[in-house]
Amino acid sequence: MDDWTTSHDRVIAQRQAEGWMFLLEAARDLRTTGAIAPSSTALARALTDPVRARAGQALNILEAGAGTGPVTRALIPQLSAGSHLDVAETNPRFAARLHHLAATHPQLAGRTQQVCIHPQRVEELDTGRRFDVIVSGLPFANFTPRQAQTIMDRYLELLHPGGTLTYFAYLGTRHARSLLASRAQARRHRAVEELMADYQRRYATGCWTVWGNLPPARVWQLTRPAPTAARPAHAAAGSSR
């Protein structure tokens, strides 16, 4: 058996194991897991596009809600010299798997310090630095409007001016929830959608649909505005004449 076949079979086995693990965690607590399957390769690639767009640059990157690590695995090969990846994941079983991924990934050999796993919520995360790119896998549709706003405001606070945030939402969830959810749950879901739409109107710089995912998803890219340079006082005075 050649090396390619061995490594290919190993990857397939790993993904199958992660799929079962994700399904078990979803059955344990779907509210916080937020999905029935890990993100696909296509979704992971769309979420990490801002990192590839700045290939070769030293970046501070934050991933929140990493699950079993499909997006983490897409990010690690993009870490150039001087880059750092922080990963926030509250599920202790997922966090343990992410620790193992960071400790054993061949592209991190000799430089595992580039990746740090934080078993805590992003609202509580304090690394002492701001980020160039934030990738969110958190299930906003499962949160209350107050929780979603707290997380989004924290993301914007953690971003450098000009930094980007990517996150996704599954397609068709409104229709499914209207059929299955209680009235209170449907109202909460609508309120979160309206809240997220407001952030999109103010900060969105890109939106893509990823059909190759279960279920299909829409990826949003938001950018924290760079501060506008203050005009000199004499220029402002002169323009008023």
Q: Count the beta strands.
A: 7
**Count of discrete domains:** 1
- How widely separated are the two ends? 82 Å
Helix content: 40-55%
CATH homologous superfamily caption: Vaccinia Virus protein VP39
Shape: globular
**CATH architecture label:** 3-Layer(aba) Sandwich
Q: Radius of gyration, Cα only, in angstroms?
A: 20 Å
CATH class: Alpha Beta
Please mark out the parts with pLDDT under 50 across 5 or more consecutive residues, or reply none. 3-13, 22-27, 29-34, 234-241
What value does the average pLDDT take? 83
Oligomer: single chain
Instruction: List the secondary-structure elements in sequence, H or E.
Output: HHHHEHEHEEHEHHEEH
How many DSSP H or I helices? Answer: 10
Strand order of the largest sheet: 3-2-1-4-5-7-6
Summing up helix and strand content along with how strands pair, one would put the structural category as: alpha/beta
Largest sheet: 7 strands, mixed
How much of the polypeptide forms β-strand, as a percent range? Answer: 15-25%
Q: What would the CATH topology be?
A: Rossmann fold
